[in-house]
Amino acid sequence: MEIPYKIYLSEKEIPQAWYNVRADMKKKPAPIVNPGTMQPATADELRPVFCDELVKQELDNDTAYIEIPQPIRDFYKMYRPSPLVRAYCLEKALGTPAKIYYKFEGNNTSGSHKLNSAIAQAYYAKQQGLKGVTTETGAGQWGTALSMATAYFGLDCKVYMVKVSYEQKPFRREVMRTYGASVTPSPSDTTNVGRAILAEHPGTGGSLGCAISEAVEAAVTTDGYRYVLGSVLNQVLLHQSVIGLETKAALDKYGIHPDMIIGCAGGGSNLGGLISPFVGEKLRGEADYQIIAVEPASCPSFTRGKYAYDFCDTGHICPLAKMYTLGSNFMPSPNHAGGLRYHGMSTILSELYDQGLMEARSVEQTRVFDAAVQFARVEGILPAPESSHAIRVAIDEAEKCKQTGESKTIVFGLTGTGYFDLVAYQKYNDHEMTDYIPTDDDLKRSLAQLPQQPAF
Ligand SMILES: *Cc1c(COP(=O)(O)O)cnc(C)c1O
Q: Is the C-beta atom of 138 inside 6 A of ligand 1?
């Protein structure tokens, strides 16, 4: 059967339910822990921070399929199903016998997969009768997606944006404001934690950890508000399973069995969503796939981190999670893969990795941009730097097939577009891009500060 350049599904084929891979894991991901009690965080403890329904999803290790409410499916129809593309042009340019497919999630105004979870989280906040939500954003993709979702459901959206990004990425900020969000550079004088940081470090450019602390404080001290997060959490991986379910439906249409599934990993939400249905088959013994997480060499949580309980934020106000981590005080050296700079990793992916169900590679920034430019020139899409980590390894694997003559089928996640990352492309084009890799001593220093581990 001739495979088309783009495999489209119909609107009716948008999944009816998200798939919760935890249900098929015999050994479940480790529970998040309240640092006060050192016991697993309870629903009661989480409800002042997160929406009720999202707390339920966060703690649900058993329900395999969770129905997608109709209003969310209706929103998905505006930009889903997203295409699964056969990269014929890239294959030809590489001269590889490998067959390469990518699932493209950049076809919406926010420019990434983050909208898949933003709309779900906004919906549950609305259902609960809340007035609004707060969040932080670093590079800006999550804040942009959330502002689109809250505009759709008529909710307030307060975004704490890391001050340096606020100043350096005015266009992202304006997209958020256009969709009605209020965007505050963090640290700010609107919260206690912000004021304290400003008093201690006047003129600081802020950090993601500080912005999280401000967003959480704003949520718990403002009536009718909750905090929402765009990655890492179980609920986010659940919502992102729409990516994997559609990918699998498209492949099944043509009887295609991938040998290898590749995705970039920051907090793990796109990769977790893409691989969930495939990992489910692996866990149930129905099929086998090679699964590869790709991370920046500058922030190598899987490949050089430790599997241990750690704080999720630099401000140390959030619960502890057991994950592959570089230490919550780890400061990745400046690089352009903004969305992949988190010190930890989803607890689900951490447990799958620990069980040997997936592997991980780290790649250097300049090689990532080599791949991004090669891809852009033949496939047409200008990829996000984050997504280009997956492109890099897909190309590496296709090159290996050229050596061995194997025609493997490779699927990778193309999570977004790079229109707001042109400063990074400029650095690359001007040959000013460098590769920063933390030393063993750097990692030893931040890992030495891991919190005391729970006794259970
Ligand atoms: C945020 C982001 C990522 C990384 O986040 P994950 O939660 O690991 O998926 C990857 N690609 C793009 C385009 C992003 O915006």
A: no
- Indicate the angle between helix axes 192-200 and 208-221, nearest 10 degrees: 150
Compute the distance between CA of residue 56 and CA of residue 408 in angstroms, rounded to an integer.
Answer: 40
Q: Which atom of ligand 1 is nearest to the CA of 141?
A: 15
Q: Is the same domain home to 104 and 128?
A: no
Indicate yes or no: pTM above 0.90: yes
Find the domain containing 62 and state its range: 17-28+48-67+114-234
Judgement on whether residues 385 and 432 belong to the same structural domain of the protein: yes
| Residue 184 CB less than 6 A away from ligand 1 | no
- Which of 393, 373, 400, 414 has the alpha carbon at shortest distance from 97? 400
Best CA proximity match to 145, nearest among 169, 109, 180:
109
* Listed residue (68, 53, 54, 66) closest to 14, CA to CA: 68
Q: Is the Cβ–Cβ distance between 419 and 111 less than 8 Å? A: yes
- Mutation test residue for ligand 1: of 82, 103, 104, 114, the one with most atoms within 8 Å of CB: 114
Residue 136: what residue type?
A: E
- pLDDT > 80? residue 339: no
pLDDT, tens only, 44-53:
999 999 999 9
Can you list the alpha helix ranges (DSSP code H) found in 179-259? 192-200, 208-221, 234-253
297 in helix, strand or coil? Answer: coil
Cβ-proximal residues to 369 (8 Å cutoff; 6+ apart), any chain: 336, 385, 388, 424, 425, 428, 433
- Which of 378, 220, 356, 385 is closest to 294 using CA atoms? 385
Residue 341: per-residue pLDDT = 82
How many other CB atoms are there within 10 angstroms of residue 274's CB atom?
32
Q: Is residue 325 part of a domain?
A: yes
Distance 325 CA to ligand 1 centre (A): 17
CATH of residue 217 = 3.40.50.1100
